[in-house]
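Researcher: Re-running this chain for the archive, since the previous output was lost when a drive failed. Same request as before.
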Amino acid sequence: MRNAVRIALLVINIICFLLIAIFGVTGIVYEILGPAGYQKMLAKLKIPWSFQRIWTFMFICLVILIVTYFLRKKFFGA
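Model: Regenerated structure tokens:
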């Protein structure tokens, strides 16, 4: 059971890190294209979210990443 929890926390941590990396790149694209160009790109990719919603989701992932990291450190010493 302990090993399963450790692996689950690690998987959640990795997924959140990848999502933050992807959303970080989209933030750079937003700065390059500007708001209008970014919204057009999202429409072409058939992503119904706005930049604000994506940004909020990224911060939620960041909080989850930090919490899972500290849980892993505290309970498993990894």
